[in-house]
Amino acid sequence: MTKPRIQRRNPEPGSAVSDWVAPGSWAPPAFLQVTPSPKPQALRRVGTVRTLSPRKNMGVLIDAGSGENALFTMDDIAPADLPTLREGDQVTFVSVIGTDGLCARQLQRDSADIPPPPSEILMARGWR
Questions:
Q1: CB 107 within 8 A of CB 76
Q2: Per the domain annotation, does 97 fall within a domain?
Q3: How many structural domains compose the chain?
Q4: What is the pLDDT of residues 72-117, one digit of tens each?
Q5: Is residue 57 part of a domain?
Q6: Is residue 98 in a domain?
Q7: Distance of alpha carbon 24 from its chain centroid, rounded?
Q8: What does the chain look like in DSSP terms, one character per residue?
Q9: Which residue, among 13, 33, 34, 11, has the nearest Cα to 21 in the 3D structure?
Q10: Using 50, 70 and 90 to split pLDDT, how confident is the model at 54?
Q11: Domain that holds residue 53
Q12: For the chain, first and last CA: distance in Å?
């Protein structure tokens, strides 16, 4: 059986420098300990597209909860929603505070909308 190696402890105010402790029994001083902080959760919010300008590659939406304007770029829109997104559509997004104020990331068109019923012509032709 091997003897545990003895390590020198960092000096603390008021203690002798020659204090020796066994491995595993030493703890750093309180000012050196780092406590983990929880990572902020990215919450999805609901908003309405106010303006959409594909030519300028940007748009503005209104957050339904706070009423603030949030900027977004066309790169932030989900690829499936890019051709169908229009002004006035409801979207869900992740809000981020950027250099220009509130920004919206990961936009998705709100899919809670029920599609309109088929026309009577389609129903007469047997559409199901």
A1: yes
A2: yes
A3: 1
A4: 999 999 888 888 888 999 999 998 887 778 889 999 988 765 666 7
A5: yes
A6: yes
A7: 39
A8: -PPPPPEEPPP-TTS-TT-EE-TTS----GGG-----PPPP--EEEEEEEEEETTTTEEEEEETTT--EEEEEGGGB-TTTTTT--TT-EEEEEEEEETTEEEEEEEEE-TTPPPPPPPHHHHHTT--
A9: 11
A10: confident
A11: 44-109
A12: 80
- Which amino acid is residue 110, in one-letter code? D
Widest CA span in the chain: 96
Domain of 75, CATH number, reads: 2.40.50.140
pTM of the predicted model as reported, rounded to 2 decimal places: 0.54
For residue 15, tell me if it sits in a domain. Answer: no
Q: Which amino acid is at 13?
A: P
pLDDT in tens, 33-47: 666 766 656 678 899
